[in-house]
């Protein structure tokens, strides 16, 4: 989650995601007020909506929640880190808990960790696929692809997100994609972020809590995942749980920073007993296994139903176990297996979402007869100047006119340090970050003095109903928009 904290242990004082599917909207709904072509209407929940003409049809979407004209670039380019060294800070912190280390803002990216979590929803079409499949094996394949896609946006993202302040929130409603999302920072030490998302068609619930354990190994920083992620497919009465792989940033002393994911991820279908085991392979010598993911889906009797392979930075395929084993044996016998370039025709024959697949060159060795489960979205051409953000990430901090009257006062979009960094005002962002951390420290001391406990607003501690492990559960009520008792954290 990064290193910013209200306990500084260092010497530093800091002065377009393509829409894969459009949900049809009731034409009577959009005609109810007779307002079209950019005029607004007010919904029952107080959210403004825009109606406008698109390809001859009246479409209605949330006016600030990323629609057809959402921004495609940040207001200012990424600040250069070439004159700064992560090692200059970390060498003084060996043996210390990294969550209590304050880092200069230059190592950040202009998003909160709560917004980073929201990037799980970038490939929501995979959840929609899982909901639509009648076959439980195909549902598990789609869920496995979604679990892999959730970490794909981290590729080349070596900037750290801002640590959320205690009580900070973030919401996102995407009517075009059919979901709404809310998250809250429920604990500061240890840092814990809780989130909840639901389908607008009442077809799924996606929730969890995340609190990685940070470790500094001298040349690398490792974030060991903690917390359970749960996806419920309501139509099929199914629940899937898993934990993310370990994330590691290399070359913190010298050289170019690079990131890898490794570890075993087990996705369990608690209704059928099916399990998907995915091995995110460590890089290995000469980078042979870099970014590779291999695994399989088995039923409750441990019979392998299919094999999954690919790269979390590129694509994911599946094939039947017999075909996979035959192919591997042929490889060992020295048969000439060439990396097959996958054409658009191949993709169209294997995948319904062909029109949304980016034009990238695969480096995954394709096994004939495999089915494409997922492929990464293309990033904007200027992504390297925007912290390597995806189109989805670029839009997450967008603040349209009128939003402040609707959002909770604790929403990330209202954080002045993140906003100033996004606008390129680094000095102001640094001072604001220091001010907010001091404000948080003062509030904590005041609570301790008065012996007042912090109370979360939208989540509560409980037990995950499927794993039996401790979890943070959504208390409900956020979208009623009664924010009168939200804390003043900015």
Task: Describe how the helices and strands are arranged.
Elements: H1 27-30, E1 40-42, E2 48-54, E3 57-62, H2 86-90, E4 108-112, H3 113-118, H4 125-132, H5 136-152, E5 160-162, E6 169-174, E7 179-187, E8 192-199, E9 204-210, E10 213-216, E11 220-224, E12 229-233, E13 238-242, E14 246-250, E15 258-269, E16 275-280, E17 292-298, E18 304-311, E19 315-319, H6 321-332, H7 344-350, E20 371-375, H8 391-394, H9 416-422, H10 426-450, E21 459-463, E22 470-474
Parallel strand pairs: 4-5
Antiparallel strand pairs: 1-2, 2-3, 6-7, 7-8, 8-9, 9-12, 10-11, 11-14, 12-13, 13-15, 14-15, 15-16, 16-17, 17-18, 18-19, 19-20, 21-22
Helix pairs in contact: 4-5, 9-10
Biased composition (Low complexity): 1-13
Transmembrane segments: 52-70
Keywords: Coiled coil, Lipid transport, Lipid-binding, Membrane, Transmembrane, Transmembrane helix, Transport
Describe what this molecule looks like in 3D.
The chain is α+β, with helices and mostly antiparallel strands and 490 residues long. It has a domain at 86-260 and 402-480. Helix content is 19%, strand content 27%. It contains ten helices and 22 strands. It has helices at 27-30, 86-90, 113-118, 125-132, 136-152, 321-332, 344-350, 391-394, 416-422, 426-450; strands at residues 40-42, 48-54, 57-62, 108-112, 160-162, 169-174, 179-187, 192-199, 204-210, 213-216, 220-224, 229-233, 238-242, 246-250, 258-269, 275-280, 292-298, 304-311, 315-319, 371-375, 459-463, 470-474. The chain has a 15-stranded antiparallel beta sheet that branches. A hairpin with a 4-residue loop joins strand 8 and strand 9. The protein is globular, with a radius of gyration of 23 Å. Residues 1-38, 328-358 are annotated as: Disordered. Residues 14-38, 328-351 have a biased composition (Basic and acidic residues). Residues 419-453 form a coiled coil. InterPro entries: OSBP_sf (IPR037239), Oxysterol-bd (IPR000648), Oxysterol-bd_CS (IPR018494). Belongs to the OSBP family.
